[in-house]
C-alpha cells in the first residue's frame, strides 16, 4: 500500500482500477490526477507497473512479465553467442577456407 501527499492509501487493486480508468477515459493526465487527487508522478509509476498488453494468442502480459522476458532474452543471446564461438572453435576447417 502507498500513500499520496494527502495521506490517502492506495492498495494494488485501487491502483489497477485507477490506471484502467485513466486509460479508458478521454481525460488529460492533469485533469484525471486533479479529479482523483493523485500526483502525476504516482500515476506514471502505476501506469508502468500495472499496464497490460494483449498479445496475438490472447494472453495478457504485465510490465513484470515484459521485464522478465527482456532479461531472459538477454541471457539467451549471451548463450547463443557462446555456442557460436564454440562451434567456430570445434568445427574443422578445410584447406580451402
Order of strands, main sheet, comes to 1-2
CATH architecture: Orthogonal Bundle
CATH class: Mainly Alpha
Described by strand count, sense and barrel closure, the largest sheet is:
2 strands, antiparallel
Number of domains: 1
% residues in beta strands: 5-15%
Radius of gyration: 23 Å
How are helices and strands ordered from N to C? EEHHHEEH
What is the number of helices?
4
Q: Averaged pLDDT, please?
A: 87
**Ranges with pLDDT <50 over ≥5 residues?**
none
Helix-strand category: mainly alpha
Percent range of helical residues: 55-70%
Distance between the termini: 64 Å
Q: Classify the fold: give the CATH topology.
A: Arc Repressor Mutant, subunit A
Total count of strands:
4
Shape: rod-shaped
Amino acid at each position: 500500500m502507498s500513500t499520496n501527499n494527502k495521506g490517502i492509501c492506495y492498495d494494488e487493486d485501487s491502483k489497477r482500477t485507477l490506471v484502467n480508468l485513466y486509460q479508458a477515459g478521454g481525460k488529460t493526465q492533469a485533469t484525471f490526477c486533479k479529479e482523483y487527487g493523485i500526483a502525476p508522478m504516482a500515476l506514471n509509476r502505476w501506469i508502468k507497473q500495472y499496464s497490460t498488453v494483449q498479445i496475438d494468442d490472447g494472453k495478457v502480459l504485465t510490465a513484470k512479465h515484459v521485464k522478465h522476458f527482456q532479461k531472459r532474452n538477454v541471457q539467451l543471446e549471451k548463450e547463443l553467442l557462446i555456442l557460436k564461438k564454440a562451434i567456430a572453435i570445434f568445427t574443422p576447417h578445410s584447406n580451402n577456407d
